[in-house]
Amino acid sequence: MAATTILQAMGVTTALLPATVLSTQTECLGTPAALTTTRWQQQAARHWSQLPLSFQGALVGYLGSVPAVQTAQQVLRDLAPARLVVDPAMADQGQLYPGLSTGYPETIRELCQAADVITPNWTELCLLTGQPVVEPTAPACLKMARLLRGRGISAQLVVTGVRQGKQVGCWLVQTDQLLFSGADYFPGHFYGTGDCFAALLYGYLTAGADLRTAVAGAERALAVAVRETSLLSDADRQLGMRLTDLVSYLVREK
């Protein structure tokens, strides 16, 4: 829902293909009721393929099961989008999201092999490379970037949720250097920042920005939503990011 709102505000015409419909987000609110849509996705993709449509790109976020990832791979092969951005949403704070199997990272790794850009947080990067989850450091990040290439993932790598001094942001890995983009750190946990960042990044790329400019723009825009959400109680934050100020910001940018 956050990604759809953001992309609409950025003027990106969006075709939705929900892989799993959940009653709530996956953390702190018990076990959500889940509806899988595998057969419907396949039928929707077949319908789209019969229409005079071309897909400028695709953004993939949380999928929720190994079969859902496999269905997404099939659909992406059929639709052949010109650009693929994958947010390998599966873990945070050192562990997999509830309900995901231990084999899930391997399937996501296969999906990432087809991507042009991937946006894992630090925990997800460690899982993608099969490394222990340790504190993020520049040498460890560069090592894991090399490990990804060894596993057939040539996508440009943007690592999200990185603390650097009094800021939080992301590392864009370019060759053997890290380019940091960040904003002021607000204490506490914010549910859905990864979804918002990936959508913002995709929107700026679709508008024609190069990756470095898109990353910096996405971080600036995300900070608007984080600032607004920081005013909420911990319980209200569990219901997701507040996007009112962000939508206004994006509309003014256009």
From TrEMBL:
Q: Which SUPFAM superfamilies match?
A: Ribokinase-like
Cross-referenced InterPro entries: PM/HMP-P_kinase-1, PyrdxlKinase, Ribokinase-like
Question: What is the annotated signal peptide range for this record?
Answer: none
Q: What is its EC number?
A: 2.7.1.35
Report a single Gene Ontology molecular function: pyridoxal kinase activity
A Pfam family name for this chain? Phos_pyr_kin
Q: Which GO terms describe its biological process?
A: pyridoxal 5'-phosphate salvage
Which of UniProt's keywords are assigned here? ATP-binding, Kinase, Nucleotide-binding, Transferase
Cellular component (GO) terms are: cytosol
User: What domain of life does the UniProt record list for this protein's source?
Assistant: Bacteria
Q: Which residues form the Pyridoxamine kinase/Phosphomethylpyrimidine kinase domain?
A: 57-229
Q: Which PANTHER family match?
A: PYRIDOXAL KINASE (PTHR10534:SF2)
Q: What is this protein called?
A: pyridoxal kinase
Give the species: Limosilactobacillus antri DSM 16041
